[in-house]
Amino acid sequence: MRRLGVALVGAGFMGTRHVHGYAALHSSGVSKADVVAILDLDRQTAERAADEAERLLGHRPSVYTELAALLRDPAVEAIDIVTDPRTHHSIAIEAMEAGRHVLCEKPLALTVRTALAMIDTAERTGMTLATGENYRRGGANRLARSVLDAGLLGTVHLMREVRVGGDSNVIISKWRHLKASGAIGLDMAIHYADIIEYLLGPVERVWGRGIIAEPLRFPADGGDAIVADGEDSILASLRTRSNVDVQLAYLPSGPGIHFSERTVHGTRGSMSIPPDRTDGDVVVTLGDRVLTGAALAEAVGDHLRLSEATIAVLGPDGTGGKGAPWSVVDSGYLAVEIDDFANAVLSRRAPEVDGTGGLRALAVVLAILESGMAGREITVDEVLDGTVHAYQDSIDQALAASAR
């Protein structure tokens, strides 16, 4: 099979993780994509990523510091965007206008307006636009979906998605505490919005808010505190189109208190799903009958389908195996995402999470944030059609100003 020439755009923390995703496919013998180039505004950062790619993949990608120069490289057929979210839409649109396919890390964009511009460009140019939603790729979430598809829980009434506990440290990077660049509340809640829609279908309406639980965030290097102006927490009740209620809480605050739950409850029983990138088990309780492991896999039968790449990089159950290092599982999730994108381009089919899928997860979280500002229930359609947009206005204004 022909291989897809991909350029990595952004070579920092997340970019390096993507290099390891390509390496997981390469070492497993199922890779359909070659990293032919790496771009970063900082040449030293790009060179370090190219060194790592050469070590893991056996060839050294070309290094660029300007997008226009990268897009003149005929070896680059597609780009993988792993930059600051403020630049996702502008980079993607320029690349698609130049005839390149795009895999874009989530969030696809920071506002509905910019996400729609990306989707419109993909439709007009005929380029593939995929959103990097990797949590759904893990074996536990695939198995959970198969439990629901098999009807083991009966009529589903409730899902709880809860992540509580943390401290006042900077989470990953400083910009993730600023509204204009996509604060961590938005960044993480989009993962959970995608999982909710993956398991239960479209969210229809929300009531909730975003808050800044830790107004000061302290860098690990001991530097000056970051004054957060973007929400670090999301608290909401959601209702899906299929009439399932969802309780969502992401609150990375409160030292000594750490609680995690992803559960689904129906008329026949309940399901507990382990945290992402861990070696926990999906457990289904049907009265006094408890199913997990091989017994659960047997119960769902053909409803559980894992791709060739999933099995190759994460094993027969798609989890990476008991005791697998976090880095191995993380690169496996990203590998499956990358493989789906490459297959979509090469086979001329839609990716599992296209631009519209990325837009929906974004719109669900924006609806929560808009609800907090409006003090009322908000429908996702109100956000998608632009009826409600107050939370996004300052972001759109900042993005427009930076483009001038």
TrEMBL record:
Keywords in alphabetical order: NAD, Oxidoreductase
Metal-binding recorded as keyword: no
Domain named GFO/IDH/MocA-like oxidoreductase: residues: 142-271
Tree of life domain: Bacteria
Molecular function as annotated in GO: nucleotide binding; oxidoreductase activity
Alphabetical list of PANTHER family matching this protein: BCDNA.GH03377
Protein name listed in UniProt: Gfo/Idh/MocA family oxidoreductase
Organism: Lacisediminihabitans profunda
